[in-house]
Amino acid sequence: MAEGLDIKRGNVQCAVTCDTCDNTAEHLCKTCYDKLCTYCKDIHSKSRSSYDHQVTKLNSESLSQLAAEPLVCRTHPGCGAEVCCRKCEIPVCEKCLVDEHRDHKTISTEELFLVKRKKLDEKYFFVQSEFPKYQAQIEKLKDSEKKNEKSMEMIENEIISHFKEARQKLDFEENRLLRISKAQHQCEQRRLETQKTRVSEYLDKIQSFSRMYQKDKQVKNYAFILYADVSIDSTIPESFPSFPSPFSLKFTKGTLNENIFAPPNTIGVRMMHEMLEVEKINVGTGEVETLTYQLNDDTFWVYLSDETCFQKFSRSEHVLFDLEADVSNKLNKPICVIPNGNVVFRKKTDSLKQVNANKKETKFAKLDDVPMCICLSKQNTEIAVAIIDSEETEVSLLKFSNDGQCLDKVNNSRLFKNSAGKISDRPKNMVENINRDIITSSKEVAVFDQTGKFRFSYVGSGNTKFPFDSRGICTDAVGNILIADVANRFIHVLDIEGKLQKIFHVSSKKDEFDPISLAIDANHCLCVGCSDGKIRVFRYIE
């Protein structure tokens, strides 16, 4: 509209369209800057909201009043910005025209004002139309919270009434199962809080822009339009965030035998036919050797192969925290986030440190042997640390409280050894499953119960092009074991008993990479730390 506008002294040389209809504008409201045809001008003057507005004839003098407040150049303070750069769409001064804008064409501030005003009108109406969608999503998440709370109450009531039948024998197991179900409930609650925070951030952006835009119609905020970012995606994300419903827990009564000790299970979960990539986060150029998800604030801790520190990244690819660690020559860089937000990590070869949100480092635990792997229990009550002796012949598992107090030491002769009974390779990663099994990965994946007794191992499906080479491992809310097969660029999914459920191919010819490390985020999505310095987020369950 404004690009075809030719303003000469006293007259508007080409037609300007009315802001209300498609007729030619002949009048200008000096109060709200609306351009009006004769018919709309009469309606504007009689309307309750605009009857007292001052309307004048539309000509170059009236249009020039839009720029009544002198503009000051943002690049060179003190210099007046009398013209605008057509290419960059900002006001510029004489110094700008002989410097960075010397080869750019200029337009008048009146023309730029009309161009950007039109774009901001379009952005404003689009943002307003998107607002109900985000409000509806917040309400859905609130409803999910209520359902999750109600589900927890039902589970507690069923567990308590069931164990009343054999109180003396089952008191210990009752309390254990209540702790597990509460931990699962709290985990789901934190996931929902994280999802609410993301949607609330988008709502805040929309409301902030709407307030500023409505305020910009005052003459004193004339510069807001000229300098405003008119890109829609500066306020609205490229795609509306999709969140899965929280898992529903079900407690199944058993008879008075070992089956009664099974924890509450999650129902209604199905594996997708193919994984769907929903997000890509660039964190560097080297391999993402370590990937740990922090549920409390929806962030990632990574260790890149070409760095010397652990780094905390937001989903918007910003570095929020870094921890120097002298372990760059080691294949496994253990780190875990405990419920209070502190981070436990290996500072040096034989040193475990703890750091809080203020970057204050303290010793976490005194160890006589070298720590190889760290993981947090699914109930968030214990930290497991795998250590190996100086001769690298025996591996032990230490259980610590969140404040660094040693609770237990598991020293089974089969612990961390492969199916042949040998420590063929140091474990690269370790996780604890919902049934308290300890799972490690090296050349093969080995699973042990909480006493260190060997349960089963996994060495691949036998149908792959290259030998199975496991690196990253993680478990999800239903106890599935997910394994990154670097050599074949596959993700293997086992159930809690070790039965192969699915093999996903994560790389493609267009975008080749190796899956190195794994984690599960607040949306029950699989996060894959890749060889090209990116974290790719996939949906894999329905």
Report on the structure:
By secondary structure, the protein is α+β, with helices and mostly antiparallel strands. The chain folds into 3 domains: 2-110, Double Stranded RNA Binding Domain, CATH 3.30.160; 112-261; 269-541, 6 Propeller (Neuraminidase). It contains 6 helices and 34 strands. The strands form 10 sheets. It has a 4-stranded antiparallel β-sheet with strand order 11-34-33-32, with no helix packed on it. The chain is elongated. Residues 1-13 have low confidence and may be disordered.
Keywords:
542 residues; Double Stranded RNA Binding Domain; Neuraminidase; 4-stranded antiparallel beta sheet; 6 helices; disordered N terminus
Short description:
With 542 residues, the protein is an alpha+beta fold. It is 24% helix and 30% strand.
At the fold tier of CATH, the topology name of the largest domain is Neuraminidase
> Using only CA atoms, what is the Rg?
31 Å
The number of distinct helices, counting runs of at least 4 residues, comes to 6
CATH architecture of the largest domain: 6 Propeller
Overall helicity: 10-25%
Topology:
Layout: E1 7-8, E2 11-12, E3 27-29, E4 35-36, H1 38-46, E5 55-57, H2 60-64, E6 83-85, E7 90-92, H3 94-97, E8 106-108, H4 109-163, H5 167-215, H6 222-227, E9 248-250, E10 265-267, E11 271-282, E12 288-294, E13 299-304, E14 309-313, E15 319-324, E16 335-337, E17 343-348, E18 351-355, E19 361-365, E20 370-376, E21 383-388, E22 395-400, E23 406-410, E24 429-432, E25 438-441, E26 445-448, E27 454-458, E28 470-475, E29 481-485, E30 490-494, E31 500-505, E32 515-520, E33 526-530, E34 534-541
Antiparallel strand pairs: 1-2, 3-4, 3-5, 6-7, 6-8, 9-10, 11-34, 12-13, 13-14, 14-15, 16-17, 17-18, 18-19, 20-21, 21-22, 22-23, 24-25, 25-26, 26-27, 28-29, 29-30, 30-31, 32-33, 33-34
Helix pairs in contact: 4-5
